[in-house]
Structures
1.
Amino acid sequence: MVKKAVESIKGLVFDIQRYSIHDGPGIRTVVFLKGCPLRCKWCSNPESQDIRPQIFYIKSRCMGCGLCEKNCPDKEVKLEHDGLKIDWKAANRGDLAWTSVCPTGALGIKGIYMSVEEVLNIVMKDEIFYRQSGGGMTLSGGEPLMQPKFALGLLKMAREADISTAVETTGYVDRKVLLDAMHYTDVFLYDFKHWDDEAHIKYTGVSNKKIKDNLKILAEAGANIMVRTPLIPDVNDSEESIRKIMEIIKEYGIKKFTLLPFHQYGSGKYASCGMQYDMKDVKPHSEKQVAKLFRIIEDSGFSSEF
Amino acid sequence: MLTKKLLPEGITREERTKKLNEAMRAVKPEICVERARLVTESYKQTEGAPYILRRAHALSHILKNMTIFIEEDELIVGNHASKPRSAPLFPEFGSFDKKELDLMPVRKVDTLQITEEDKKYLLEEIYPWWKNKNTGDMAKYYINEKIMDVLNSPYRVLDPISRTRSGYGHYIPNIETVLKKGFIGIEQEAKKHLENLDILDPDYPEKKHFYEAILIIVDGIKCFAKRYADLARAMAEKTTDKRRKKELELIALNCDRVPYYPAESFYEALQSYWFTILIDYIFQNGSAISGGRFDQYMAPYYENDIKKGIIVREEARELLEALWVKHSDVIKVGTFNSARNNGGFATTINIVLSGVGKDGNDATSDFSYLCLDAESSVFNSEPNVSIRVSQKTPDEFLHKVLEILVEKEGGKLPLFNDDAIIDALVTDGASIEDARDYAIVGCVEPTPSGNTMGITNACYFNLAKCLELALNDGVCPFSGQQMGPKTGKAENFTSFDQVLEAYKTQVEYFADMMVSSLNSIEKLHAQYSPHIYCSMLLDGCIENGKDCTLGGAKYNYIGVQGVGVQDVGDSLTAIKKVVFEDKSITMKELLEALKSNFKGYEVLQQRLINKVPKYGNDIDEADNMVAWAAEHYCSCFDDKYDFRGGKFRPGLFCLSSNTPLGRQVGALPSGRLSGTPLADGGVSPKHGMDTHGPTAAAKSVAKINHARAVNGVNFNMKFLPSILKTKEDRQKLIDLIRGYFSLGGFHIQFNILTPEKLIDAQKHPERHRSLVVRVAGYSAFFVELDRDIQNEIIARTLQQVS
């Protein structure tokens, strides 16, 4: 494809975050693409899951002016004494442009269509910091490869701009897309959430078979992969569970492995999307518990550096 | 096993530093009237003599008669006033009225105890004698009446008058000269000049007075040090503690020699440094008399003693820490207003570490690391330690700096960009060697070392007020006074260019006022308060036979700071967008909204805040407007010089003056409410407005041409400690710093702390006495700050990074 054509491909982006320092080597800009095939209970980006644009309401920023109520197409939003009452299903239908009447930004949209060129223009704003640190662009989501043309376009152009490229993936994607992405990806941050398929289905909504197979093939193809496991209390946080994962990925020849300790920073976003958060009462691990598991990983010969 | 070579065994470094620090921090600062008495005595005796001789006699008289003491376990001696950490008075520069004195013990910032007896003494005996004799009172004879009218308004754009009260400070004395030659060297030079003076020289009398004044002062200095030697010996004789006896004897030996004779050991060099800088503070009411490139001139003494085996590293650190603690002894008393601007007893004795040497090569040494060690153990607001960073500075050194910041959770150790600053100083007229040898004055002001009369913080200039006046035809909305020129009714403006023109006219009008009034004040100082001691320590003065207040030093500047360039830029962007581009409201409506402080216009205010791009997010539309306002302010001084030929050097920083200056400005088109603080730092993005992360903020800041604001800029960035947990995290921050510096940024300062900690400190100041924070470019004990400023620190954007 010619460059011009690639640059004009559009995709749905719900956030772009500069100075991200835990998503690959160096200083990075993470581009968050919307849509995810998984429904993990602990998801810290609930606004990423649906593949369509959606309304996002931050109650604490609402000044109660009522402009949204006056401007919404069909009474989807109602101002009550303690903020907005939103009929989420109705409100998320159709064109959401009317939300721009909100003066405070309490009411907004998650998911806007951007071209590869537009995204790259923002990403390249930090070029000087990438050069200094060996950083670059990381695609995340959701599952970024759910928008394959757009994601590949972004990776290709970033590679052309000679910055580091990384992809955070669930692995639950079309194999061909994954192998295509490999050509333009310096490092995959590949999530592997549970070794046991039954448990995987229970907590994420999908089987881990495809994820395991893809991981194996990607590794065999010579991709640079760091496997990451979100460490979730009572789901996969036992020593045994971690060892099982390590056994599997060792077999695939993978050398980099790390854990992403459970946190609840995303909890507030559930309400903002009109969703229910089920992990409120789950207590995050102590630093000591996490350190112990990290030591096991290290002792097993895995590196946790990008 | 013996761990010490020079000092007696019996106390560890940690124990001594802890004791000294606890004693210093436990002091409840008070006013000391002794200096006021001594200086008045001396002036009464010298009436009629040339002022330069009167000044010299006054200092000598103080040094010979002031109370001196040596505190328990001190190794470096020399006190500022009659009690530790108390504030002497300088009636020759100005007096305090009863109201100010009554306020001292109850004001929330820079609280000072004073007895009724002392108050009475000052109000009845001291101040009446000085009426119309002190520089503060005499300012009225020097400054244009029309300017005085503006300066007398509480809503004024600038306040140069505080310069008359503060005397000289804000410069870097040549301490290296004293270490190397001793005051005996300076004495000999003065004598030689005096002997060789040409009686036909038209300046013969002035030069004669100048050199005679030096000799008078050196006599006082000799006596001062001898008094300490005698005291130490007397104390040694009395004490039964063997260890202390030995230490006191060492102190006595030091004071026998320095600062009169050249320093021969590291310990002597430290003592000589302290006397040299202390005497300046005893003489002058000014703050920010800086230590300069401490690690550069001190390292040879350290290395030599290590090599000769007369000291070990840990012992050197013990001495260094004892010296570090001493810096907190120097506090000055200001008026309530001045305390609010600069609060936290900020003497700001700046010490610079690392950077390149005069040859352009990296000059970081083991001793630079040792100084960081001492800083991390003591970690008070003084000394104000700054770090010079060149491309050649090792990452390892920066890691160490960041580790200290994370551990202490208090922002100190600002970083300065060698490469950009050296270039800018050369462009500004310094030689390349002098530029490479720059150090920092006060908080952020780079000047050459030991040869520059910098006066780097002469005045703050309220740019936001100028914009307000431009929108109100020059009338101050608070007072109704026609403060600035009539630039037209803003509701009649038909283009954005007219807004810019009106703003420029206002700024230029007040810039001229500032130049005029500061020049007048410099003349006033030169006539009545020549700074002869400082002249002894600035290259050029002795050669020229001319006091530094008259332009004797090699380089002369006056630093003037623009404040609120961010508020101006964001407001102009808003006007341009909503009034002239989108035309969503008229200028008339906007002015109405401002007049009512957005009451009834809340939706409009939110739109202005949230729907117009703001400086600090790497959005050119907003950033370029701020950069324009910065450039315009700086350009006002391109052709401005004081009577000494000194350049007016613009800077963009504000310490904590953005809070009081904000009280003088009504609501602004940026959405800012009336009376609230202006943006902090000088070039930092406005609180809470930089939502695109630290790289975006850094890039925005670097779009301002820092080289134009050569008197210094201040960029504060606040982090939660969680983002600097690992070495990799810290490396990324170092990469961020280096990236920002490669874009031309002069300065960056990190506050790494938790808001909870600050809120808790407000509730329980007693539990947080050691918490040091930087307020817009300098550091102070948090619990000693004004409540308003505390609140502002808490509100400052948390750079949330995941």
2.
Amino acid sequence: MRRTFPILVCFSFGMTMLVQFFVPSKLSTDAYNEITNWVQIIYAFALIVGVVGLLKYHFSRVSRRERGWFYNLVTVASLIVMSLLGFIGGRGDGGSFMWVFNNMMAPMQATVFSLLAFFVASAAYRGFLARNLEAFLLLFSAVMIMFGIASVGNAIPPFSDIANWILINPSMTARRGIFIGVGLGTIAVSLRVILGVERTYLGKE
Amino acid sequence: MNSGLICVSLFTADGAGIWIASILTLAIYSFLYKDNPIYRFSESLLIGISVGFLLVTTFDTTLLPKAFEPVGKGLSVMFGIGGFGSIISFIWLLIPVALGLLMFARFVPKYAWMSRVALALYIGFGAGASIPANMQSYILRQIDATIRPFLHIDSFWSLINAIVILAGLISTLFYFFFSKEQKGAFGKITRLGTFYLMIFFGATFGYTVMARISLLIGRLTFLLKDWLGLIS
């Protein structure tokens, strides 16, 4: 019961979604929309469960005064304050919730992503050595794209033309090969899940 | 360019926002020196704020309009206040809410298995919906885009490009076929596939670097222009 019933639910809803695609009708479209709504509601509850789990983890570290507990406290406090600002203070433009988003969250996220520029540059410096033909192609393609996109390279026709040709021909076709592999792999895994062969999502007994 | 430092005022809502954003930006960049308490503080702050933001927006866009408001309306009908038509549709609506609430059974070890039902529905939906979607977007459209250039050949170079694209797709697919040892004629085709993959990885790398550098330029512009007023 504890494992069989969830497998049956997975099979039923998986087959329903699969069949509704091949039987276009008002009923199948309505069923699709209804189940999509259900899934969104379940996702929202799952998110709350995740937040509760996160709070439990950080609270336990703070209460045991584990190493670095102050940072756990910062995470918990900022999560609670942000939630309260949204739920009590309102979520409209000009409110404190959006003020925190615009002046703290968005700049910090952009900075974290931009931090990667330094690390990829350092990795490229260490790793981009044209030891063989494959390594040379990797280096050549990367350099052409970087120059082709930058304004200085974009002004010089060979760079921009070569970059464009690489992007829409050899690079795109290799991407297509990977996409087809990803598509076939996803279909195979989805079938395994629907048929109950793949059960890791059920966890341990 | 301005001759001196003209920092934005700290005593307005916008000015205070710029000051805080600048200090947090510098706090995160301090990681470039080495891992330090200031960076770890801002990292923890970012995690907390991001999760709080996601929680509030999910409540706003999903839970409130799709679950709580309709359930509230349904309850008011049951107690004879509103005009909600059918009791059956109310009970129908309660199913996903009940399944969502079952997710909380995870916190009670004895009943933790009950949360699997909601999870199974979610995964079953994803698996079932992804099969036709993947078949269309990842397989059929890609094959279509590979063959279509042969229907529009109007010059020598368009023929060359069409051949480059077709040869690339076939050799890349051959490269990922691991059931046969990659040697002989088959090995030569897979080696060609490796060349295409290297070009793709290089292009993707170059694109990623440029995207991150444009973000870096954005942050530096913010610091030098909006905060310090060094550039106009």
